[in-house]
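[recover] target loaded
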């Protein structure tokens, strides 16, 4: 199998970074995979010690085919670091698997991502593979579905799709109609559009909402496992852009072989299940607006 490179972005959270790497090392394809780690430099002196601890840990790693570490000599910030790192690696390898320093994975996460990248490589309607999914009521953990929303907690894509990434808030805003925005917000179940306007107003500086918008405008689809292969442990107040999440899950998908769908259209069944999860409570609705502003 032609495995995709794994790219991990780290900053100033030693404990979270260790948990992320330890579970990644336990993946069945870890020793056959190249791991690139981008370590951002501290914003100021108060961050220096934690960044130093993270760098000490990543410079003593084993368990992968090859480990390449990029230590930034200035603070790029998460959004710019990810855009630059993903663009550089994907240009060379043609595909990529991306993680951040607070994503713990199932032992079959890398297999699922690589299998999906190979399966849909030539299917131009499929733009993105997510390792995470909302805690929906699923009868089986061995299948996956397609839908419109991009999730960024452990994800993958191809170079010929990533080339359309557009972080120009003005052009995105000008190209979306009211009906587009309604659909972008999962038919009014969430407020993802807020993140676009907040970037425009310089209230936040994020990347993922623009990747979602780029996929959406190209009418692309995103693949999700019915049961998540990852969990985000960063919603404990330690993250730069995230509050606590109502969607943390304890059990991860342990299925080795996933059945991929050949029906290249949005799954209405799974869409409705996710909508129910999104609408579960007023508390969750408030949190959705705040969490995961990557």
């Amino acid at each position: 199998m032609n495995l995709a490179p794994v790219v991990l972005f780290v900053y100033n959270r030693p404990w979270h970074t260790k948990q992320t790497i330890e579970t990644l090392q336990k993946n069945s394809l870890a020793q056959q995979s190249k791991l690139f780690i981008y370590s951002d430099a501290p914003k100021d002196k108060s961050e220096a010690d934690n960044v130093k601890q993270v760098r000490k840990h990543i410079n003593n790693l084993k368990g992968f085919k090859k480990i390449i570490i990029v230590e930034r000599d200035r603070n790029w910030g998460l959004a710019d670091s990810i855009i630059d790192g993903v663009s550089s690696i994907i240009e060379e390898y043609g595909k990529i698997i991306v993680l951040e320093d607070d994503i713990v994975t199932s032992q079959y996460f890398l297999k699922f991502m690589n299998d999906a990248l190979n399966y849909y490589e030539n299917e131009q309607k499929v733009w993105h593979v997510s390792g995470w999914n909302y805690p929906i009521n699923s009868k089986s953990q061995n299948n996956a579905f397609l839908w419109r929303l991009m999730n960024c907690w452990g994800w993958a894509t191809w170079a010929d799709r990533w080339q359309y990434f557009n972080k120009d808030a003005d052009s995105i805003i000008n190209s979306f109609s009211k009906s587009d925005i309604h659909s972008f917000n999962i038919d009014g179940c969430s407020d993802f559009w807020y993140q676009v306007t907040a970037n425009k107003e310089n209230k936040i500086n994020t990347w993922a909402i623009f990747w979602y918008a780029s996929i959406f405008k190209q009418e692309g689809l995103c693949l999700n496992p019915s049961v998540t292969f990852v969990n985000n442990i960063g919603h404990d107040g330690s993250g730069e852009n995230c509050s606590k999440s109502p969607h943390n899950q304890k059990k991860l998908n342990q299925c080795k072989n996933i059945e991929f769908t050949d029906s290249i259209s949005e799954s209405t069944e799974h869409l409705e299940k996710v909508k129910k999860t999104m609408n579960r409570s007023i508390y969750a609705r408030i949190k959705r607006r705040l969490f995961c502003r990557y």
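[recover] notes: The chain is about 35% helix and 15% strand.
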